[in-house]
Structures are given as structure tokens and as C-alpha cells.
Amino acid sequence: MSSLESSLGWVLDCITNTANTWFPILSGAFLGLTANLIWTAAAYISFSYSTEQSRGSFISMQWGLLSLFSSLGSIVAFAINFDASALHVPIAVYIVFILVMALSFLVALFGIVAPSTVRRRDGTPLAHYPHEGFWQELKHQRRLFQDWRILAMFVPMFASEVPFIVLSSLN
């Protein structure tokens, strides 16, 4: 379900070409809320659908696809905007991205099956991570932020994410 909701966030972000200042702010906040849903869904699929031996391959495929399609999206925007005389994004870029996100919504709606129905090649069911509730998750996160090893990881995690902004932005 979070894949469906997150694709709506990306569609809303694509239509921020408006003179109203409240709309880009609202869509940016909505995109921020829904982007974490798509990352959570992707991580859930990577960790629960894979076996211990293939988990690294699942995660590398996820990151590889992210980089590939980020670059393709930038190339599409660059190609549409190549001969533009004005310093704004043409509405065609927004239309292309809205169509792509609408397609991703349909893929998420009809293509993702319930984890309880999926079996691995060896016949075992997927790993099950029970839902613990909002407050329990906040307690777990508080405990994580009290661990110095997790805090020490913030610098390398930040440093490894910054190039994705630059590398996937050709336009």
C-alpha cells in the first residue's frame, strides 16, 4: 500500500509549475512524507523477499535501478528542455513525469502481490516483520539514536548520499 501512496507523492511533485507559492511548499512537504513510504516499501521488499545469500544482490539491484532511472529521468528532462529559450521547465516535462508516475501507480496496484502469497525458490515463505505500532517504533528509534555507533554512521551515510543528487541531475 505504501508504494501506491508514495507514487501519488511523486505525481503531486511533478505539477508544482504554478504561480502560487503555497502549492510547491505543500507538494514538497507531501513528497517528503510519501518518499519515505517508497523507501520503506523498497527496503521491505529487499529484506523480506531475499534469502541471506541473495540480500546483497537485491539491495544492489535496488540502488542500480534507482541510479539508472534517475539518470534516465534527467536525460528526458534535458532532451525536452534542450532548445528551450526560457529559463523554466516546459510543461511537457511535467506531463511525461506524471505519465510515468501514473504508470508506476498502476504497476504497484496490480503488480505487487501480498507477501503472504509469495514463496521463495526453495518453497519457504518470506520473512515476516510484524507491525509494532507507531509509539513502539518511536521507542526503537530513540534507542538507536542513543547508540554511538549509529550516530557515527551519519557522516558516511550523508557523504554517500550527496553524489546521487549531483550524478542524477544533468539538466
Structure description:
The structure is a single chain. The protein is mainly alpha-helical and 171 residues long. It has helices at residues 2-14, 22-49, 55-81, 91-111, 134-145, 148-152, 154-167. The radius of gyration is 19 Å and the shape is globular.
Estimate the global geometry from the Cα principal axes: globular
Order of helices and strands: HHHHHHH
State Rg.
19 Å
Mean pLDDT, all residues = 76
Structural class label: mainly alpha
Major sheet summary line = none
How would you classify the quaternary structure? single chain
Question: Strand fraction band?
Answer: under 5%
Number of extended strands: 0
Distance between the termini: 32 Å
- Low-confidence regions: none
Residues in helices, as a percent range: over 70%
Total of helices: 7
What's this entry about, in short?
With 171 residues, the protein is mainly alpha-helical. The protein has helices at residues 2-14, 22-49, 55-81, 91-111, 134-145, 148-152, 154-167. α1 (2-14) packs antiparallel against α2 and α1 runs antiparallel to α4 (91-111).
